[in-house]
Amino acid sequence: MNQTAPGSAMFPVSRPLPCRPGFRKSQAMIRSILIHPDPRLKKVCDPVAEITSDLHQLAADMLETMYDAPGIGLAAPQVGVMKRVLVMDCIKDGPAEPLVLLNPQVIWASEDLSIYEEGCLSVPDQYADVKRPAAVQVRWMDLEGADQERQFAGIWATCVQHEIDHLDGKLFIDYLGPLKRQMITRKMEKLKRERARAV
Ligand code: K1U
Ligand code: ZN
């Protein structure tokens, strides 16, 4: 697990990265995950304007951080980068299916809703039922700069909506009533105090 200290600590890992021609290969790093409450988790992120080697590194680091946590998704603001970038892999068994979405947009949502007990790496060990559209059509740009579109259903639909919410400064606890949300926030403040004392 690596969702401990806030800040920018990074840990090198040895897995080689897939790399676009022209971009130098480098090692993926595990980044620290911000814990709620943190002002960076409440901000609307900026669109990605150009694809750079730093962006490739960010995507690789985010995937590494997500697999290490472990989680099924991660959004850039969770590692303190205020850009519209998210990664996901909701495959439980079988070969990994890592996705990197730049500037993702929901362009259609089903009327059917589904309830899923969500968690969040920025709100560790807290889970709550959230109701969202059961299926969504999402358009995004990939790391090659190409437009992509795909319909997500099941856990993929829940996860992509949860991650896009992060890009808009919204957490799953914002769907809960004020008392439940406040209780979770207080627990997280206590956790952060304890972690700060432990270092
Ligand atoms: O955004 C995040 O903080 C990641 C989050 C994504 C998510 C989980 C559940 C519903 C919607 C979105 C997580 O990955 S929490 C960890 C988790 O769900 C998980 C961890 C290991 C195996 C399976 C799931
Ligand atoms: Zn989350």
Task: Give me some keywords for this one.
199 residues, alpha+beta, Peptide Deformylase, disordered N terminus, binds ligand K1U
What does this structure look like?
The structure is a single chain. The chain has 199 residues and is of the alpha+beta class. It has one domain (10-198): Peptide deformylase (Peptide Deformylase, Alpha-Beta Complex). The protein has 3 helices and 9 strands; from the N terminus they run E-E-H-E-E-E-E-E-E-E-H-H. The chain has helices at residues 53-68, 154-167, 178-198, and strands at 10-12, 29-31, 73-75, 85-88, 99-109, 113-118, 128-133, 135-141, 147-153. A 5-stranded antiparallel β-sheet has the order 3-4-5-8-9. The longest helix is centred in the last third of the chain and has 21 residues, at 178-198. The structure holds ligand K1U and zinc ion.
What's the CATH class label?
Alpha Beta
Counted by DSSP, the helix tally is 3
**Strand fraction:** 25-35%
CATH fourth-tier homologous superfamily: Peptide deformylase
Give the tally of β-strands. Answer: 9
Strand order of the largest sheet: 3-4-5-8-9
Domains counted in the coordinates: how many? Answer: 1
Main sheet record: 5 strands, antiparallel
Distance between the termini: 16 Å
Radius of gyration: 17 Å
Poorly predicted regions are 1-9, 11-17
